[in-house]
Design goal:
about 600 residues; alpha+beta; eight-stranded mixed β-sheet; two-stranded antiparallel sheet; 20 helices
Chain lengths: ~600, ~600
């Protein structure tokens, strides 16, 4: 089926939950009127629905083809990327002084969600390019910015991130690629990189590879890694293309999902004779600070992958919803009629659809909330506020990546389940979302890596302060829910339930944080045994918080009169509070058991 | 990697948890000495490891080929099935008076797990054949038994179940296939059946289709469905093959997983000219009781699909475990050394492996426990006891199917996650287990259908008596754990934790049962909104119970001296109690919220 951007849901989340008005009032965004934003969102919806969404299934069955080092993209992908470039979408949220359009990240989050929902595999190309733009914007030299950013923002060139090597995955200390300085200030880069998304393709005239490698005298470990620009074709001063560089695509991977996205093995300095003697590279920033710079890209990319989770979940939800209302099977419960009805009338199908919707909408609202914070972190006139929002945003990035992608597994799973036997048949399309989603908890740092970041940098480093500050905000929502419930009204019981479960969620976070902070003073293993559970329960509670905020808005309005849209918001929130929020308690128990468990969870005991 | 039957784990579960000795002491099993059983299990392990397991990956990439109605099995499958037949495996647990070997179902559960772990796709052929044998044994006429059972048990012929039609999936009331009586007592069958596993292939000389169809004057709905034998080739009195029947394979499905298993669209009475005028069929049992008979097959098949979940989970666990001990990445936590270690040393990898192991071993022990009950239901000398065990077994079937298959999704998911990026590459093989497992919660009745059976027939019908009886047994284990913990010893805290979480699990079941029994007096929708959560939390608690029993055995023995195997059993149990059992509480809250939720979970609110 075709994909429709959920415009009404998105607008609700932007305006009611993510303070769009506040963001548009920030210095630097004066020119973006609400009308203009609406026009951008409408055009984006039209573009992804008409030009990208139809490619999703065909790209799955017709993956890119490798031949003699050249890669031909899936049919239609080159034209679609040209249309994407022509529409100005690549530069949307980037610095206007460097060729971007400078829209808020909050709007970028929406357009990114939409295009990813249309096709995850297609969208990886702009996603990685965004990361390269972000890194060069922040740490590239003026000359590098001039040489590369316009072409990247215009979509004439695309970008990649080259971290992984066969022996160096999550552990980048083991990176072996070498970069040898040359007399002219450039470097020659040698080595093999794997799992390079859009590492080779014919959708744009050039590819800018950002590559982690070691200079000859670099120290061992992560403190000896530097970052290099290695363009596929050397870029001349005037922006035109020079010689073909010595970087080659040796093969493409055969993957479970995102088939249309070429995942390349790249050889640097394979000396194929055209240039040879190593790939020419240019140092970005200072030597040995490559990992730090790469984290700039990674943070942007991690947030973006969280958005991918929401996107594929939304697509799976739409498809399952349509099927459930179409498929007639079985009589309705609690009805005198024995006539078969659409399966959307059966309680368990309703459960599955509400579970899908709750997870998707909760994670979306949380991601928008974070994007809003990122905009305030950059644009707020008050420095204290900028700092405040920066900390908030950074706290949320691993949560959004971790929870947003893990929940997408559940949502795409349920999307298949709603289809019954038809879901297992590839032509139906539900299975593709399930396959495509599966990479999301792995790339740009597995969920465990997000959890390491969360525990190490977001909980332990500030002694749990940011977590506590967020907890106080959630508690405020609890109080508002209780006040509203006490006022009576049609939905008092529902609001009460949401308040109760949300409060239990806060307790779950507190329990986990207390254990983590205390235990980390003695040993880390018991803490990191619960790192993923802690991360996921935090995402669960914060997403539930966003839905609770939505429920408050809806419940107040519904006292004035019926509204189908708001009724659905309330239903989604109360269902989430009942079926999903209590998982937080279960996970917190597991976190807090860490010390008792640690002697039992050993390498010997998992043989 | 190759698959190894987990012989030591299986023996432990058989002897310590599933009362193998008690089963072997039953009348009818006198000839099966422990030594003979050991020999059977050893030969089975050798057979599946050497002859079936190597076909799993090749079958995935080389699915059966359809041409002009003929289906050629994946390379090697025909020879493997001949070896399977020659080994006498098909008749293993069937009636010796009808050509089977009459081994306990408990042993059949083990051999079924092993062969399914070796290849789910291969094993579906014997699995369905088992169902046909079971149905004909119980409701076939003497003449039908003589004509079909020997060939089926010898593996010369295979069997299928034909229920689904395009408009009739979970809702069999909508079956339209027709059966027209003929003067000679046979019928002519017309209609289209879909999703027919091994509906056509060249691995055996004949296929016995069991088909649901309506006779001309049959009442509407499920009470007008009859069961027919429709052989691919008509069977002569002497067992030799007669004419080709008018049943044809129109196409095979293109599926997410179990690629090597041909899923056929079958046309009955398509009149291809060879026989024409309808497929010749023979009524099984009485007219209009087809659904009841089909449930005999379905119950056997549902149990077997639960075993499939355990099997694919075990295979994924083995592969992930091997990878985790092989892959070197990152330094150990809480260590002075910065040298990279195998990822099996990292807490989150240990968490994933123990989560996989706990789910797999818990479900395995529960399935064996049920098989043991099935053997006692058939062979116990005391009628009251037979009745008691029959009720117990039937209570457990939907739990084993529902929980055993749902947990296999989590286990195969984690199996990929342990592999990181390599997991997403098809050649690694971890993704195949994930894809293959995905059908298990769908076929032979989705998890929702299992939950309907569980709530309707296993909880409401007897007013929760069987659930209560099981609860009392679990409570006994809790008391034993507490007693053992109070005695002190090295593992007192671990046993205490298990007792505490298991007791909370019992409370979760009680809360769910009380809500269900009370609420069902008023309306069903609020109950069935929580039917799947209730089913899954029951499976979770009962699996945790089995692991707790294992922990008791291990803890007592470990006081006498170290033992790596028993140490692992204890570790698995305490981990499960911490990380998995508490989910039961969360699910019970959701179940008990049904009444509050029902007004919000409507077809309109899931649009």
């Amino acid at each position: 089926m075709s994909y429709r951007v959920p415009v009404e849901d998105i607008r609700f989340a932007l305006k009611q939950l993510a303070d769009l008005d506040g963001v548009l009032a920030l210095p630097g965004f004066e020119e973006f009127s609400p009308d203009l934003i609406d026009a951008v969102l409408e055009e984006n919806a039209r573009f992804v629905e008409q030009e990208i969404a139809p490619l999703n299934q065909s790209g799955d069955t017709q993956p890119p083809q490798w031949k003699d080092g050249h890669v031909t993209a899936s049919p239609g992908f080159k034209a679609a990327f040209e249309a994407f470039a022509a529409g100005g979408w690549q530069g949307l949220q980037h610095d206007p002084e460097l060729g971007g359009q400078g829209l808020p990240k909050l709007i970028g989050a929406v357009t990114s969600e939409n295009i990813n929902a249309a096709s995850l595999a297609f969208s990886l190309c702009p996603l990685l390019t965004d990361g390269v733009i972000e890194a060069l914007t922040l740490v590239g030299s003026d000359e590098q910015k001039e040489r590369y950013l316009p072409a990247l923002m215009e979509g004439r060139w695309t970008g990649t991130m080259n971290l992984t090597e066969p022996q160096a995955g999550s552990d980048l200390a083991q990176v072996k690629a070498r970069a040898v300085p040359q007399d002219d200030g450039s470097y020659r880069v040698y080595g093999q990189k794997i799992f390079i998304t859009y590492g080779e393709h014919d959708m744009a005239e050039n590819i800018v590879h950002l590559v982690l490698a070691r200079t000859p005298d670099a120290p061992a470990g992560v403190k000896g890694i530097s970052l290099f620009i290695v363009p596929k074709f050397l870029a001349k001063q005037d922006g035109s293309l020079g010689e073909r560089n010595d970087v080659w695509c040796a093969s493409l991977e055969h993957k479970l999902g995102i088939h249309a996205s070429p995942t390349a093995v790249l050889l640097f300095g394979a000396d194929k004779g055209e240039v040879g003697e190593g790939a020419i590279g240019y140092l970005v920033g200072q030597e040995n600070r490559g990992l730090e710079y790469m984290f700039i890209m990674m943070n942007a990319a991690r947030y973006a992958v969280g958005i991918q989770g929401i996107a594929v979940a939304e697509r799976a939800l739409q498809q399952a919803t349509a099927y459930a209302h179409d498929r007639v099977q079985g009589a309705a419960l609690d009805s005198d009629s024995r006539a078969a009805v659409s399966i959307a009338h059966h309680p368990d199908v309703q459960r599955m659809l509400l579970q899908m919707r709750g997870l998707t909408e909760g994670a979306r609202a949380l991601a928008y909330y974070a994007a809003s914070a990122a905009d305030k972190a950059r644009h707020h006139p008050d420095e204290q506020q900028r700092k405040h929002y920066k900390t908030l945003y950074e706290f949320l990035v691993p949560v959004i990546k971790g929870f947003g992608t893990e929940m997408s597994q559940e949502v795409t799973y349920l999307g298949m389940q709603v289809h019954g036997g038809m879901g297992f048949i590839e032509e139906t399309g539900a299975a593709q979302h399930y396959r495509d989603a599966r990479i999301l908890t792995i790339y740009e740092g597995t969920t465990a890596i997000q959890a390491n970041d969360f525990i190490g940098r977001k909980i332990l480093r500030d002694g749990g302060q940011q977590a506590q500050a967020l907890g106080a905000l959630v508690q405020e929502t609890v109080e508002q829910l209780i006040t509203q419930a006490k006022a009576g009204g049609k939905h008092a019981r529902a609001l009460e339930l949401i308040a109760q479960r949300l409060e239990a969620g806060i307790e779950a976070v507190k329990l986990s944080a207390t254990f983590t902070l205390t235990q980390a003073q003695h040993a880390f293993s018991p803490v990191f045994l619960g790192s993923v559970p802690f991360l996921l329960l935090t995402g669960n509670v914060l997403s539930g918080w966003q839905l609770a905020r939505a429920a408050l808005v809806a419940a107040v309005a519904l006292e004035q009169g019926d509204d189908e849209f708001l009724q659905r918001k309330l239903a989604t929130a109360v269902f989430y509070a009942s079926h999903i929020l209590p998982r937080a308690d279960a996970l917190a128990l597991a976190v807090a058991d860490g010390e008792l468990l640690a002697p039992y969870t050993t390498a010997e005991n998992v043989k």
